[in-house]
From TrEMBL:
<feature type="binding site">
    <location>
        <position position="152"/>
    </location>
    <ligand>
        <name>NADPH</name>
    </ligand>
</feature>
<feature type="binding site">
    <location>
        <position position="45"/>
    </location>
    <ligand>
        <name>NADPH</name>
    </ligand>
</feature>
<feature type="binding site">
    <location>
        <position position="148"/>
    </location>
    <ligand>
        <name>sn-glycerol 3-phosphate</name>
    </ligand>
</feature>
<feature type="active site" description="Proton acceptor">
    <location>
        <position position="203"/>
    </location>
</feature>
<dbReference type="GO" id="GO:0046168">
    <property type="term" value="P:glycerol-3-phosphate catabolic process"/>
</dbReference>
<protein>
    <recommendedName>
        <fullName>Glycerol-3-phosphate dehydrogenase [NAD(P)+]</fullName>
        <ecNumber>1.1.1.94</ecNumber>
    </recommendedName>
</protein>
<comment type="similarity">
    <text>Belongs to the NAD-dependent glycerol-3-phosphate dehydrogenase family.</text>
</comment>
<feature type="binding site">
    <location>
        <position position="203"/>
    </location>
    <ligand>
        <name>sn-glycerol 3-phosphate</name>
    </ligand>
</feature>
<feature type="binding site">
    <location>
        <position position="266"/>
    </location>
    <ligand>
        <name>sn-glycerol 3-phosphate</name>
    </ligand>
</feature>
<feature type="binding site">
    <location>
        <begin position="267"/>
        <end position="268"/>
    </location>
    <ligand>
        <name>substrate</name>
    </ligand>
</feature>
<feature type="binding site">
    <location>
        <position position="267"/>
    </location>
    <ligand>
        <name>NADPH</name>
    </ligand>
</feature>
<feature type="binding site">
    <location>
        <position position="44"/>
    </location>
    <ligand>
        <name>NADPH</name>
    </ligand>
</feature>
<comment type="pathway">
    <text>Membrane lipid metabolism; glycerophospholipid metabolism.</text>
</comment>
<dbReference type="GO" id="GO:0046167">
    <property type="term" value="P:glycerol-3-phosphate biosynthetic process"/>
</dbReference>
<feature type="domain" description="Glycerol-3-phosphate dehydrogenase NAD-dependent N-terminal">
    <location>
        <begin position="16"/>
        <end position="171"/>
    </location>
</feature>
<dbReference type="InterPro" id="IPR011128">
    <property type="entry name" value="G3P_DH_NAD-dep_N"/>
</dbReference>
<feature type="binding site">
    <location>
        <position position="118"/>
    </location>
    <ligand>
        <name>substrate</name>
    </ligand>
</feature>
Length: 345
């Protein structure tokens, strides 16, 4: 029986924990480590925890990337969370609630809890910060969310990018931004948690649409039309739920939308491209070894949209492709011309 090594971290820097050792969780651990924090990562699999701690690598999710020496991992939650000032959550959105129930008693009483996830919970239709609030019972001022044009592998390669940290408390947002800002990762702040979270959710759905038309073989005009009209859908939806429209024009909205739609590194774009090439939903899920949050968010987003009377023709057509009731090649005409009557832009 192989023994798991104890978690060893330097005594310097702010102690933080990252729960989840996938591509984004590991990348954010690197961001925090390069910003001077002492980072403990929870990896469910002991062999992955050993690789991160001993080899400074995560070959499953970030091949070829070296991690800083002040990042270590363990499969044991108590030692990962012990003394953490910030707890960063990077687990699949649909499993967040069950994970929070496991760690609730282990999170330090004064720790700030930060969501790195972009999704809406099926059934409850709750945003990730709402799930955190409900399960942990902490003040909303102790919760923050991070969003923006953040493709994990590019950031892991230290290509410069920006993100936005949002919290109902500007002081909390600023504290997290300071902890996560380094020479290649710049954090801005806002207090529009609703807009910041919905931006991260909604852009995934538009990225699936872009992937579909890319897989079919349509060109840049089609994709530009969908991105532009997709931003309108995102803004209408988010504002209906209390977001500020300017948030949708910022990093969490337009910035994330462009990155996710245009990059082959995007899991949602990849999922859409497979759909466009003729694979059905179950075949797409089987081919992906990482979660494409957009696929899980289509149904709850449409349910939320219907509750506020918001029309989302692009997302509706994506749902039809997922259900197999619309051929991928028939998607774009519906997206760009959902009525024959001339409409104001």
């Amino acid at each position: 029986m192989t023994m798991t090594q104890p978690l060893v971290l330097p005594d310097t820097g702010r102690r933080v924990a990252v729960l989840g050792a996938g591509s984004w969780g590991t990348t954010f651990a690197k961001i925090l480590g390069d910003a001077g924090c002492s980072v403990a990562v929870w990896a469910r699999r002991p062999e992955l925890a050993r690789e991160i701690s001993q080899s400074r690598r995560n070959s499953d999710y970030l091949p070829g990337i070296n991690l800083p020496r002040n990042v270590a991992a363990s499969p044991r939650l108590p030692e990962v969370l012990e003394g953490a000032e910030h707890v960063y959550l990077s687990v699949p959105s649909q499993s967040l609630r069950e994970n929070l129930r496991i760690v609730k008693e282990l999170i330090p009483e004064t720790a700030t809890v930060v969501s790195l996830m972009k999704g809406v919970e099926r059934g409850t239709l709750a945003r990730m910060s709402e799930v955190i609030l409900a399960e942990l019972g902490i003040d909303s001022d102790r919760i923050a969310v991070v969003s923006g044009p953040n493709l994990a592998l590019e950031i892991a390669k230290e290509q410069p990018t920006a993100a936005v940290v949002s919290s109902t408390s500007l002081a909390t947002a600023s504290d997290v931004a300071l902890a996560a800002s380094n020479r290649y990762f710049r954090c801005f702040v806002n207090t529009d948690v609703v807009g910041t979270e919905f931006g991260g959710v909604l852009k995934n759905l538009i990225a699936v649409a872009i992937g579909i038309v890319d897989g079919v073989g349509y060109g840049e005009n089609t994709k530009a039309s969908i991105i532009t009209r997709g931003l309108v859908e995102m803004t209408d939806f988010a504002v209906a739920y209390g977001a500020l429209p300017e948030t949708m024009s910022g990093l969490a909205g337009l910035g994330d939308l462009i990155a996710t739609c245009e990059s082959p590194l995007s899991r949602n774009n990849t999922a859409g491209r497979l759909l466009g090439q003729g694979y059905d939903y179950h075949e797409v899920v089987a081919q992906m070894n990482q979660t494409a949050e957009g696929l899980a968010s289509v149904a709850p987003v449409l349910e939320l949209a219907a509750a506020k009377g918001v029309e989302m023709p692009i997302v509706m057509q994506v749902a039809e492709v997922l259900a197999g009731t619309l051929a991928p090649r028939d998607l774009a005409p519906h997206l760009t011309t959902d009525t024959t009557e001339p409409q104001g832009e």
